[in-house]
Amino acid sequence: MRIFTVIWFGQLVSLLGTAMTRFALLIWAYEQTGQATTLALLGFFSFGLDVLLSPIAGVLVDRWDRRLVLLFADLGAVLMTVTVLILYTTGTLQIWHLYMVQALTGGFAAFQAPAYTAATTMLVPKSQYLRTSGMRSLASSVSQVFAPVFAGVMLRLIDIGGVMLIDIATFLVAMSTLLIVRIPHPTSTQKDLTESKLWKETGFGFHYIRHRHGLLGLIFLFMGINFFAALTYFSILPAMILARSGRNELTLASVQA
Fold it and tell me: Considering the entire predicted model, what is its pTM?
C-alpha cells in the first residue's frame, strides 16, 4: 500500500498541473477566436485518439512493464507541454498546434490509464481495492475542483507560461515517484504478441461486454452522460461564461470549480 500511495501522490500532483494548463490554454484559445467551436474542438481532439487507442492499449500494457509505460506516458505528456511553452514564448503558438498537442496527449493517456489501473492491482491486496479506488477518485476530484481556481489566480500573477512551468514541475514530481518504486509484473503474461493475437484479445473485450446486457446498458448510459456533459462543459459553458463576464478567467474558474 505504501508504494501505491507514493505513486498516487505523484499522479495527484501531475493531474493538478495538467488540469491547470488545460484551463489556461482554454482561456487563451477563446481569447484568440472568441468561438465556442474552438473549445469544442479542443475537447474533441483531447479525447479522440484516447478513445481510438484505448481498446488495444490494455492488451499491450498487459505485456509491458507498467512502470515504464507510466514513465513514458508522463514523459510524452510533459514534452507536449514543453512544446506548447516554447511556441507560446516565441509568439508562434496557433490554435492548430493545440489541436495536435491535445490529440497526442490523449494518445499517451490511452496507455497511462490502463497501466495505472494494472499497477494498482499488483501493488495492493484485494481487500484494499475499494480504498485505492476512492483515493484515485479523490485525486480526480481534487484536480477538477482546485485546478481552475489555482489556474485562474496564477494567470493573473504569472501568465500562461508560468502555469505551464508549474505543470512541467508537477510532471517531474510524478516521474520522480515512479523512478523510486518497483511495480511487480505478472509472470504468467505472455510477452509474444502477433497481430492476430492483438486483434483477438482486443475483440474479446467487446465480445465480453456484448454478451452481458446489463454491463452494455450501463456503458451506453455513461457514454450518453459523458457525451452531453462534455458538450456543455467543453464548449457551451466556458464560452457562455467568458462572453458574459468580459472574459474573466476567475469567474469561469469559480463556476467550473
Answer: 0.82
